[in-house]
Amino acid sequence: MTPSRSNSQQSASQNPPPARKLRHRLLPWFLSGMTLCLLYGIIWTHPTRLFPHRIEISGIHLYSDRPFSEADAQAMIADTISRMETISGWEPCEGLSAFICNSTWRRRLFFLPCPKAGGLASYLMPHCFFSGGDIARNQLIRYDGKALTEERTLSYFLAHEFTHIHHERMVGFWRLHRTPTWIKEGYADFVGRGNAWERPEAKEGFLNNTPEMTTPVIAPYLRYNLLFAYYHTQLGQSVESLSKSPPSLEEAEAALTQALTGRRTEG
Fold first, then answer.
1. Kind of pairing, strands 97-100 and 127-130?
2. Before 216, cis peptide (omega within 30)?
3. Residue ranges per domain, the chain?
4. How is residue 131 annotated by DSSP?
5. What pLDDT, in 10s, does the model give residues 22-47?
6. Helices marked H in 46-135 — which ranges?
7. Apex CA 105: angle with CA 36 and CA 163, to 5°?
8. What's the first-to-final CA gap in the chain, in angstroms?
9. How would you class 220 by CB atoms within 10 Å of its CB: exposed for 0-12, middle for 13-18, buried for 19 or more?
């Protein structure tokens, strides 16, 4: 009996249960994944070494992987600040930085979460990343290498992403996370582009669903700008109050439609 028991124990030790085998197989993959995530987090929060060309202007740190002239950078940053002055009392928060990723590998590295985005804001550190930029011409370079030649300039994109960071500092990360996209993007576009309520063609376009008011599908910025502008400039609601008690997109669009059609009837 004793030898038999010894043999069964030896057999069990040589043939561990399937669950233990699975753990042994998955552990290296888990550790490798955790290491990659840690390295990616470090790169995202400390990216300065990957951008050799840099300058600080009026409290804004500008980094690029391509050389640029100080005069061009000053003009672009001055335009950005003039847009940010839409926010009463705005000042750059400590460490506010813009990183311009012209090379393909940098773009892929920093835009892994949203590969087709023009800009991304990091709330943990006040860093913003851009898919590329011609600072001399004040143009954003898209993910496909093409320059954006419409009214949204590179300084527009800086102001847009800086507004996201300001919004987070104002209401907190969790409240911002719960704020509807139309408010977050509408506010950022309002600051970066200007007040869409002052554009008659935007109001007509909203009522007629013209392409400029319905694209891009993921976030039609001018449409959201008009919605935000209506609540902010016409109804007097602050960004904080909209973030605290936000109307849904459907409610906001219904309210704006009623306001615009009422004006048309009165006219």
1. parallel
2. yes
3. 44-172, 179-267
4. S
5. 666 776 776 677 776 777 677 778 89
6. 70-84, 104-110
7. 85
8. 103
9. buried
| Overall size of the chain counted in residues | 267
Residues 6+ apart with CB under 8 A from 191: 83, 84, 86, 87, 159, 160, 163
- The angle at the Cα of 39, spanning 34 to 41, to the nearest 5 degrees, equals 95
Asked if pLDDT for residue 265 goes beyond 70, the answer is no
pLDDT (tens digit per residue) in 54-79: 999 999 999 999 999 999 999 999 99
- 92-113 per-position pLDDT tens digit: 998 999 999 999 999 999 998 8
Going by the DSSP 8-state scheme, the letter that residue 49 receives in this structure is G
Q: Topology of domain 44-172, per CATH?
A: Glutaredoxin (3.40.30)
pTM score: 0.86
Q: How far apart are CA 145 and CA 106, in angstroms?
A: 13
> Which pLDDT value is given to residue 1?
45
Residue 50: burial class (beta carbons within 10 Å; 0-12, 13-18, 19+): middle
Q: How many DSSP H helices and E strands does the chain contain?
A: 11, 7
Q: How far apart are CA 240 and CA 242, in angstroms?
A: 5
- Residue 175's Cβ-count burial label (10 Å; 0-12, 13-18, 19+) is middle
Of residues 164, 184, 182, the one with CA closest to residue 255 = 182
Q: Could you tell me if 197 and 230 are in contact, meaning their C-beta atoms sit under 8 angstroms apart?
A: yes
Distance of CA 246 to the CA centre of its chain: 20
Q: Using CA atoms, how far apart are residues 95 and 127, in angstroms rounded to an integer?
A: 8
Looking at this protein, which amino acid is placed at residue 248? S
Q: Sheet holding 60-64: strands in order across?
A: 53-57, 60-64, 97-100, 127-130, 119-122
Let me know: does 154 contact 141? Beta carbons within 8 Å: no
